[in-house]
């Protein structure tokens, strides 16, 4: 069995739900074959989210960590390639904090790449019939904060651990006017199961074009 830690976020910015926690909860209730899944809901708060992530990793002792967040407006599931060492909050977090141009980790590297086969993960989601893409930016809000913190933890304390970050579109109930793309929670959960499967079975990533021109 592969021990998998999944994290999602609490709602933020006035929303009643967060699709990341909806999907993570469904996967924990019905994990993919060969995976033992622990699910943890993180606060949408700078600093505190990293503390709770580190505690969850220490308790679960996972082989794989997949952190999941919301990226409203994106049309499909996006697997993040890189985390950058900056917090630059356009809106306050749930504790009212709004860091601007501050490092996630003082003195840390400018960036880390995900230690997952991001292109193979995207291919697996598409094979499941769900739209997906590689993302070249996780933003500069709490999602990137957690992604960078996870990558730094792996680089400095747990080199055998593999991990990465996935963004999900809005849940349908968040876009009742139909103005933004949305993905049902069950499909989002299926996408996460496909990503777990690809991450567990693939050590050398696919060499296919998934870049961006802007």
Fold and architecture overview:
The chain has 214 residues and is of the alpha/beta class. Helices cover 31% and strands 21% of the residues. Helix 1 packs across helix 5. The termini are far apart. The relative contact order is 0.23. The mean pLDDT is 97. GO terms for molecular function: pyroglutamyl-peptidase activity. Keywords: Cytoplasm, Hydrolase, Protease, Thiol protease. Belongs to the peptidase C15 family.
Largest sheet: 6 strands, mixed
Taking pLDDT < 50 over at least 5 consecutive residues as the criterion, the unreliable ranges are none
Count up the helices. 5
For the termini, the CA-CA separation is 40 Å
Number of DSSP E strands: 8
Task: Write the H/E string, N to C.
Answer: EHEHEEEEHEHEH
Radius of gyration: 16 Å
Structural class: alpha/beta
In spatial order, strands of the major sheet run: 2-1-3-8-4-7
Strand content: 15-25%
**Helicity, as a percent range:** 25-40%
What is the average per-residue confidence, as pLDDT, rounded to a whole number? Answer: 97
Shape: globular
Quick structural gist:
With 214 residues, the protein is α/β, with parallel strands linked by helices.
List the helices and strands and how they pair.
Blueprint lengths: L1 E8 L9 H11 L5 E8 L5 H13 L3 E7 L6 E4 L1 E3 L26 E3 L4 H10 L4 E4 L6 H15 L5 E7 L16 H17 L13
Parallel strand pairs: 1-2, 1-3, 3-8, 4-7
Antiparallel strand pairs: 4-8, 5-6
Helix pairs in contact: 1-5, 2-4, 3-5
């Amino acid at each position: 069995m592969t021990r998998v830690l999944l994290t999602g976020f609490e709602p933020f910015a006035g929303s009643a739900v967060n699709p990341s926690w909806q999907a993570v909860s469904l996967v924990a209730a019905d994990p993919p074959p060969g995976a033992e899944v622990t699910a943890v809901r993180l606060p949408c708060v700078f600093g505190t989210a990293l503390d709770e992530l580190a505690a969850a990793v220490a308790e679960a002792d996972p082989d794989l960590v997949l952190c999941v967040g919301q990226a409203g407006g994106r049309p499909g599931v996006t697997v993040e390639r890189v985390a950058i060492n900056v917090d630059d909050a356009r809106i306050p977090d749930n504790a009212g904090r709004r860091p601007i141009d501050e490092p996630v980790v003082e003195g840390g590297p400018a960036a880390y790449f995900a230690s997952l086969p991001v292109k193979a993960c995207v291919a697996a989601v598409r094979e499941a019939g769900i739209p997906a893409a590689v993302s070249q930016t996780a933003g500069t809000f709490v999602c990137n904060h957690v992604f960078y913190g996870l990558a730094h933890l792996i680089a400095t304390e747990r080199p055998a651990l593999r991990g990465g970050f996935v963004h999900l579109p809005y849940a349908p109930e968040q876009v009742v006017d139909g103005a933004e793309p949305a993905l049902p929670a069950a499909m989002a959960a299926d996408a996460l199961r496909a990503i777990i499967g690809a991450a567990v079975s693939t050590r050398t990533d696919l060499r296919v074009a998934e870049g961006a021109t802007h």
